[in-house]
Write a structure and sequence with these properties.
By secondary structure, the protein is of the alpha+beta class. The protein has 2 helices and 5 strands, in the order ββαβββα.
Length: 86
């Protein structure tokens, strides 16, 4: 696995250090689930989003969202952060 880039994005604001922060990790297809969970724990934000290649022709990207404790099926501000990062 090669080194990954990530951004910390504050959703729902235009002001720095306000809003709801989420980490967005790019090109995460080769990161195993257990490592995603460990990265989310290390980020220590409410959510960390992993950007993945889409699985269908109608999608531009796919995401997996993790809290420091578990994976979520969906969450609002990390989805907004992922859209902004994309």
């Amino acid at each position: 696995m090669r080194q990954k880039s990530f951004w910390q994005i504050d959703a729902f604001t235009t002001d720095k250090y306000c809003g709801n922060p989420a980490a967005v990790v790019f090109e995460a297809d080769d990161i195993p689930t257990e490592k995603m969970q460990a990265i989310a724990r290390e980020m220590n934000l409410s959510e960390t989003v992993f950007m993945l290649e889409p699985q269908g022709p109608d999608a531009d990207y796919r995401v997996r969202i993790f809290t420091p404790q578990s994976e979520l099926p969906f969450a609002g501000h990390p989805t907004v952060a992922a859209c902004h990062a994309f």
